[in-house]
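User: Could you go from structure to sequence for me? I need the amino acid at each position, not a summary. Structure tokens:
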């Protein structure tokens, strides 16, 4: 009996030892599980934090995307405005170039106008220089005396005839040098021809008429008609005055030697003013040569 109890006691003790060992194992296992649980809890907590951070990042990304979109729209608007500005700049440059071109044209035209005025002025001065000192018209059949003064051939011939009636020595009507020789001046005829080419048709016809009159009068001189009369505008007698061209000789009727101080220009004789000298018409502005 005691032996059985003893065996039973031993078995119980062995079982207790086993149970204690098992308890110890279980306690260790429990500690591990608790530690693992705590670890898991920490991981879950960390996971939650990460999710929250992810959420924040997504929000931030969304905000950035929106911002980028707005920025892109603004940029495209800015690009469009820049394009417009560039187009306007190009238009302004084109306009400026056109204005420069127009200014250059205006300046060129002004130069042209002033140079053509200059040419007209010089032509007028030259025309005045080429007028006969006796009849004041552009010379017809220019004839140069030994003193180098030049007149129409008819005018100077008429002057010489007139002078011969009163004095043995005939002088130049301008400088009074004795006339010893005379020559036709064809160069001057050509220059006068060039000037007349610039005239209007009316002026050219007047010039032709004048040349025809000179030819007829020269022919009359050669055939002996040498006295002044009322129909000859270049050698005319009216009341007590005798005119050679536009020069008036006041002594009449004995026709003494002409005192050149008494030789004056007539201005109001009807027969002449009805065919006024071109220079007077130019001065009055009623006639404009073609080159104007
Ligand atoms: Zn003349
Ligand atoms: Zn002279």
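Assistant: Here is the amino acid at each position, in order:
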């Amino acid at each position: 009996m005691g032996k059985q109890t003893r065996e039973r006691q031993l078995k119980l003790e062995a079982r207790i030892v086993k149970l204690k060992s098992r308890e110890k194992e279980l306690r260790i296992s429990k500690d591990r599980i608790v530690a693992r649980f705590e670890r898991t809890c920490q991981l879950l907590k960390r996971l939650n934090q990460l999710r929250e951070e992810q959420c924040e990042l997504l929000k931030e990304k969304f905000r950035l995307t929106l911002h980028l979109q707005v920025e892109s729209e603004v940029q495209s608007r800015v690009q469009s405005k820049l394009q417009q500005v560039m187009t306007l700049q190009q238009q302004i440059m084109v306009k400026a170039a056109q204005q420069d071109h127009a200014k250059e044209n205006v300046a060129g035209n002004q130069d042209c106008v002033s140079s053509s005025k200059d040419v007209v002025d010089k032509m007028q001065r030259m025309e005045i220089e080429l007028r006969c000192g006796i009849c004041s018209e552009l010379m017809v059949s220019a004839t140069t005396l030994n003193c180098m003064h030049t007149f129409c051939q008819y005018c100077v011939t008429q002057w010489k005839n007139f002078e011969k009636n009163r004095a043995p020595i005939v002088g130049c009507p301008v400088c009074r040098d004795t006339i010893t020789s005379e020559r036709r001046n064809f160069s001057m005829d050509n220059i006068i021809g060039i000037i007349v080419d610039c005239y209007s048709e009316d002026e050219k016809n007047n010039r032709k008429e004048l040349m025809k009159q000179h030819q007829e009068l020269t022919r009359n001189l050669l055939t002996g008609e040498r006295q002044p009369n009322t129909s000859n505008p270049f050698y005319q007698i009216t009341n007590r005055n005798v005119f050679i061209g536009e020069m008036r000789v006041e002594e009449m009727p004995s026709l003494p030697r002409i005192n050149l101080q008494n030789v004056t220009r007539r201005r109001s004789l009807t027969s002449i003013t009805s065919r006024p000298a071109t220079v007077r018409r130019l001065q009055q502005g009623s006639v404009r040569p073609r080159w104007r």
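One structural detail worth keeping in mind: The pocket of zinc ion (ligand 2) is lined by residues 145, 147, 149, 172, 174-175, 177 (CB under 6 Å).
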